[in-house]
Amino acid sequence: MALYAGQVAGGHRGASGKKPVVKFAVWLASSALMLVLASPSQAQTTVPAEATAQSVSFSIPAQPLADAIKAFIRTTGWQVGYPAALVGNLQSRPVSGRLAPQAALQAMLAGTGIAVRITGPQTVTLVDAKAASAAEGGDTTVLDTISVAGGNRGVSLGTSSLSDTGTTTISGGQIVARSAGNDANDILRNLPNVQYQNDIDDDAGVSDQDLINLRPREVSISGARVYENNFILEGMPINTVTGTADSDDDTDVEDSLTPADVNRVYGLHSQSIYVPTDFLESTTVIDSNASARYGNFQGGVVSYKMQEAAKDRWKGNASTDFSTSRWTGYHVGTENGLNPNGVVEPEYLKRRSSVSLSGPVTDNISILGQYSTQSAVTSKDKDYRYTEKRRVTEESKNDFYRGQVKADTDFGDFTLEGVYTHYDQIWENARWRNMQINQAARGLNSKLEHNYEFADFSLGGVTLSNVKLDSKLTYGQSSTINDVNGNVARAFTQSAVKSRAVYWNATSLSDWCRTDPTQTIATLCYDGANGDRELGQEQISWSQDVTGDIWQGSFRLGAEYTYTDAYRRRPEDVTYYTSYTTIAGITSFSEYTCNTADECNSEMFAKSKSIYKAFDIHAHLNQFDTYAELEQTWDWFNVRAGVRATYDDYMQNLNVAPRVVTNITPWEDFTISLGANRYHSAQSLAFAIRDGVPRPENFSRTATSTGVVSDFAAGRSTGYLLNSASDLKTPYTDELSLGISGIEPLFDGQWRLRFLDRRSKDQYASEKTGSNYVLTNDAHGAYQSVTAEYSKELDVTAVSGLDQLLLNASVTWSRREVSNTSYYEDSLEDEYIYYHGQSYTKSGFNVVTGNMDIPLRFQAGLSSSWFDDTLKLDVNANYNVGYTGAKYTDENIVIDGRSHEIYEDFDFDPLLTVDLSASYQIYKKGEAGLTLNVRVDNVFDETGNATASATRPWLVGRTVWVGAKATF
Questions:
Q1: Up-side HSE of residue 794: CA atoms within 13 Å toward CB?
Q2: Phi and psi for 208 in degrees, rounded to 5?
Q3: What pLDDT does residue 669 have?
Q4: What's the rounded Cα separation, in Å, for the pair 39 and 87?
Q5: For 42-73, how does the pLDDT look when each residue is reduced to its tens digit (9 = 90+)?
Q6: What is the mean pLDDT of the segment spanning 177-192?
Q7: Among 262, 242, 665, residue whose Cα is nearest residue 441
Q8: Quick one: which of 536, 538, 279 has its CA closest to 402?
């Protein structure tokens, strides 16, 4: 491929008539507008086929050629074959920016005398350029045995930067093997420093809502809470900053005679976009040593990379699959193994499908459109007392839309992209006549991005090369909505019992409510619903990121401005009436007088009511971020030093987060790393929008002995006090890491051994002042882990029919400790735990013990391809070593007038789970094909250590998905 003077393959150079420094300044300013989108006429030059291949972002510094090729393989997933002695002691050229893979490889090999020979869509062979030229002239050259490296590694440890010791990238078969259903977050399961299991749960049985819950899995990374991670989709932040929990940790509504909490918003989640696995290319997880470019987290960073618009031809695919309760392993999970209430196994049906279409519309513009949908349906019985319908259907649906337009122009590369989540999950209270809540979520994220590469230039005598500017304008809005079918709720007395005999029935309720023979006092019937509520946010951000090569390495500078409007609202007042039939001294209900029309008739009157006032609370935040980072390498020593500074006008704190990683490479393929970093939280608005939420106004009234019902006495309301964070410090976490890594000499596999120590400080906590609670910075925490990881593509030349076999394995030991003060230990908490002589609220106990901590875990994965990629098998296994933890003893104790569940130390059993996925291509012709897929989660039907309650006794073991995918 010819390179013209003043150009680098795949890059964009400015016109030669301007001074480099002037060009840099002009482009830095003009890119802020991002209004120039070149027309097709600006790119009429014929482009070679290899240059139209899908571009990839490269950042590979100059280094020994063998190492550079490995970095190229990790970045692209390509296979590279070469004679064993060809690379020798050669050095590579640095490659950075968005380039077509072949162009990047050629730039890397420039000046080495090595040529690239294309052997397949993503396979190349490296050959001696002179020998190749002679062979083309008619001579025959016999090369040494070819060593093939690369392909889809499944799990890749680190990046081309030595400092990214806490980074793991998952792609290909391991995406499929690790993700249950259509949830991209499931890919994070079993990764080192990622926790998602809860062995101490004594109510782990599945409910109807658990079965149809299609929201992404919540995970804890490096000891942080599940809402303290930074999720990124195609460079767009998709985090919920308005809060993901209310007064306790329970996120599901449950069937109960007590109405669902009027103030709580159900269905909250830490992400604004629910990412499906259908279109994923890779998932990158950073659990430690994060670059200064990343902020707003105390846990980890998760970046999802999706398919890009195709530039070479039109292509597409469509898929569908389903799962059913008939293929599910159910087990009674109560402590004694009994099902005393005779609860039947819950039934469900889940379906999912997707379609993707992409291709070029002009020589320089390509587009992509994608749609994925998943649905689930279940049913359950209504309570005996309600006669109108005996069984109800509940369902959920998650729709995901994505569109992308990419333009490669003389002014740089432009990307316009948008993603949208439309989620609904219906719940109906089995113990109420007609209360329904749609736990809906809506999320939109969009970006306009501009990438530009500058010609090499000097600034103050310092030479800068491969300088690139990434400018990005993003807009997002999201909300969690509880769409409820009414805002007035009532509790009626249908019948009264005396001496175990019914002595009174309400005739006004007979058409929909009947006496429950199991009730020994009275049958209460509940009607109505408790009103809509909504929690949401709107964000606009503008960022610029400049990278390039300087001195012995690279630099990065960036700045970002974000405006957030967070809100919490209830559009209408909600009223809840409690009704009774008993009136002292009255023997006939016709003898009393209703002198008010407010819930009073000839049979009964409402003795009390609560009014929950409408509100619409907004909190606004302007946040400014800037960062700088420099990475340099001198022979055997490498260091990356950076700092990130953040200021917002709500908390008004200037937060400075230093980031430093040093690496020593005493010999080839062996590196020692030491890191020290600080990360700051970004959850302050969750507290701001709770300010001013009104407490209910409570009213009561009585009936006189002569049968006169009075008016309701005036009530009063109070506000929440656990809210203001504006005068507090910003919570942060300090991290120290030590690691060694390299390529083992026996099988040439990647390995990594790490120690991680984190200390969380100035965390939000609640403190009781009199009868109220206030927010403080008195909580703290600690997390330590030791992890060992290995990743290798095994040699399969001796196995007939086996094309590729990828192995990854890890072992993780971790420990988490958090103080017994938590923001969510508020005055609404009514469940308490007694453990080792101390009283805890239930949420506080979960925080202290680390409710997602499994001390020692092993993980292994295998991805294989057979018979020219016709058959693919992917396996992932996880083994939890047995340990001692805390568990409920089924006994209670009263302390200070409060009932406490007694917890004691318990020996948890080891647990092995295995997940399997397989695909078989039954038809292939050109680019068209049809593949059958099957996925089995929890192959051995294990249920773990968590137990179930009598009301929800069923634990889920094995699940099965089957489907098909067509490509064209």
A1: 15
A2: -60, -35
A3: 86
A4: 43
A5: 333 333 334 335 677 777 877 778 878 888 88
A6: 84
A7: 242
A8: 279
Mean pLDDT of 208-225: 91
Which contacts qualify for 740-748: CB closer than 8 Å, 24 or more apart? 740/670, 740/671, 740/672, 740/673, 741/157, 741/158, 741/165, 741/670, 741/671, 741/673, 742/669, 742/670, 742/671, 743/70, 743/669, 744/669, 745/669, 747/792, 747/794, 747/795, 748/149, 748/792
Mean per-residue pLDDT, 465-489? 95
The position carrying tokens 């009275």 is 522
Residue 719 has pLDDT above 70, yes or no: no
Give the rounded percent of residues in the chain with a pLDDT score beyond 70. Answer: 84
Question: How far apart are alpha carbons 205 and 951 in whole angstroms?
Answer: 9
Closest CA to 148 of 748, 741, 742: 748
| Range with the largest mean pLDDT of 65-69, 265-269, 400-404, 922-926 | 400-404
Annotate 484-496 with DSSP letters as a single string: ES-SEEEEEEEEE
**Cβ neighbourhood burial of 238 (10 Å; 0-12, 13-18, 19+):** buried
Q: Are 216 and 184 in contact (CB under 8 A)?
A: yes
CA dihedral 537, 543, 549, 551 (to 10 degrees): -100
Mean pLDDT of 912-939: 93
Q: Is 657 in contact with 646 (CB distance < 8 Å)? A: yes
Q: What amino acid occupies position 129? A: A
Give pLDDT, residue 841. Answer: 73
Query: CA 885, CA 903: separation in Å to the nearest integer?
Result: 10
824 pLDDT more than 90: no
What SS3 state is found at 121?
Answer: coil
Kindly calculate the radius of gyration of the chain based on its CA atoms and give it in whole angstroms.
31
Question: Which single residue is written with the structure tokens 């609640």?
Answer: 766
Taking CA atoms, 90 is separated from 62, 111, 113, 164, in Å, by 11, 10, 10, 25
Residue 327 identity (one-letter amino acid): W
Nearest in space to 863 (alpha carbons), one of 850, 873, 878? 873
Q: What is the band of 2 on the pLDDT scale with cuts at 50, 70, 90?
A: very low
279 in Cβ contact with 400 (< 8 Å): no
H/E stretch holding 655:
strand 654-667
CB 881 within 8 A of CB 908: no
What is the set of domains in the chain, with CATH numbers? Answer: 20-151 (3.55.50.30), 167-487+529-573+613-684+725-967 (2.40.170.20)
Mean pLDDT for the chain? 83
Return the pLDDT at 245: 63
Q: What is the per-residue burial (b if ≥16 Cβ within 10 Å, else e) of 593-603? A: ebeeeebbeeb
| pLDDT at residue 125 is higher than 90 | no
CB atoms within 10 A of CB 687: 23
